[in-house]
Amino acid sequence: MQEISKGANVSLTALSEDAGAVVVSLSWSSVSGAGDADVSVLLVDANGKVRSEDDFYFYNNPAAADGSVQLLGKTPAGNGDEDRIGVDLTAVPEGVERIVVAASRYGGARFGDLDDLRMTVADRSGEPLVGFSIHDAGVETAFIFGELYRRGEEWKFRAVGQGYETGLAGLATDFGIAVNEEAEEAGDPGGAGDGADADAVAMEKTPDAEPEPVAPAPTPVTSPVTAPVTAPVTAPAEPVAVPAQTRGRGPRTTTTKKKVTLPKVAKSSLAENDSWRPARLFPVPTLKSDKEREVRATSVLLSVMAQVPELGRRLTAAFGAPAGRMQTFTEVSLPHGDTPRRPDGVIRVERAGKLWTALVETKTNGNPLKPEQVQEYMDIAARRGYEAVITLSNDVALEGAPMVDVKIDGRRKHKVSLWHLSWAEVAHQAQMLIRHEGVGNAAHAWLLQELLEYLRHDQSGCHGFQNMGAAWVPVRKGIEDETLASDDPRAVEVVESWERLIRQVCLRLGGELGQKALPVQRVRRGSDQQARRAAAAERLCLDGRLTAELRIDGTSSVIAVTADLRTGKVRTCVDVPAPEGSYPLTTVKRLVRLLAEAPADLHVETLVEAGNGPRGTLERLRPEPGDLLPKGGAALTGFRLSLIKGMGNTRGNTESGFIRSVDEAVTRFHQGVVAHLGPVEARAGRQG
Fold first, then answer.
1. Residues 642 and 561: beta-carbon distance below 8 Å
2. What is the pLDDT of residues 137-161, one digit of tens each?
3. Which tens digits make up the pLDDT trace of 674-687?
4. Among residues 636, 6, 571, 66, which one has the least CA distance to residue 317?
5. Which of 370, 408, 451, 551 is the 20 to 30 A CA-CA neighbour of 116?
6. Low-confidence residues of the chain, pLDDT below 50?
7. Which helix (H) or strand (E) holds 281?
């Protein structure tokens, strides 16, 4: 990650090949742990002003309708908070020149009371690109941390670090927003100059900027940048509680719509016994053939994408689709020589009079994509002006390893992109929306829940990556017998399957936690992926091990996973740094207390500056934590925590399958070990 100073700027395109969407994080800490601030985002034009009230995003207006900006909420971090903002730069309207990221405090609190003020920008995969720390905060009650701005066809980041003693009102004035005097008098006694309530700010409107009449029964929406305005609603909106971020600012009455998420615990059932099954919108028991599964799965997914804008946008944004009105179709007949072709589906998105279109080819139940079939759809798409062909199957795409090989006719002026989506990714995105991030209304949440139930059903055939491939058994036996040659091409196939498995494990784990989980690749950006996999295959032939690392967004720890094909064991481990300046015995006892609920067979090893430290199982160390202290006065640097379990041998996802054993190993390790290490991880992250 590149560090820059106040006033400096850097091109996001130069830092990442995947900077079309970024995650901006603002963080701070305080000695008491009670420091708080509200994040806000302003979209401004070439004149440096917001175009309308729709260009201001804050706790009561957290997401743009076009998907360009989404406030992702606060995450505890050490003694403070980290606020994250998702920005889809490809969806930002053309009239917007800058995206200003700011924060404000209230109740007389000042930014000088906070420590470690920092802004970071990460790419779509979660890889940090650039960071900026603010060291000169004092009496300011509002701060512009930084901004994203256009330069030609690229986006750049500038570290601003500009503070306002006049709070949110002073910041707002600079961007064409005026203080609502009535709201100011009714708000914080301190006034706008003393950290006034956000509700004391209103958009300065001209007569011709008034909104057009809307449908009957409008719902008033309270915004910190406008006087109450009316907005149409599509479903009855019940009054909701004031968000937690508004506490301490006096009473507020708000009837704004709330994002809907479903509870993790199911409601009590009215069934007479456990054999009764709830009625489902998308039934699957009647599916008899792979063709039926493909037709049903395509229709179910595309219909939900069209009806739930959040899901449709999320699944197509990475493919270049705009944020707009989406329509989907199945079994469409398209001319192709003497015989028409019927792709499984078509997606059409309209925005500002422009149309984006894609053909969809679906496979279920582990069936592979057929290169000749995909090639035909690429040719049809090129002739008919489609922007993309999207393949959808149980398999997981890898960087530098296309799912199918197709030939692109370079003579054609119209270019068609080929993209791949796995059923595991679809399930992950649905779960993130209904369990963690929310959707527009309860009907959409219910549709997503029905989609998820369908994808998880045994008969749907949409269970993600489930087969290590034909090379798995001969490679495993060759390693056991020590007969596998170091240049055997089947080893590369196993390495690729292993990477697909790890990516799917990350998707499932991230969906459960509500945080992005990503594989860690310790190679230089832009490195040749095939050469990297060939090197991993050679190591597999030599030592019989498949290794991977994964990191969960918001944590500092990296979970290492090792599958030893010689011993038939899967090891999961994490390194926990020791806090600086603490006494070794205090550190050891604190670790054991944190692991009070961890599995008794957890292996704990003390890490020292040189050589090996003491080790043992948690069951043995609990009564005698002092046994972990290094011998001979060696400096304690941290601990390595490991769990070991048996490895499945078969190549599939059955109870005895390798895929299930790895998935269960990671789940058990995170739930039983990593989830209990929050305070240690946070401190380690701050020191790192």
1. no
2. 888 889 999 999 998 888 999 999 9
3. 988 864 443 333 33
4. 66
5. 551
6. 181-200, 202-257, 679-688
7. none
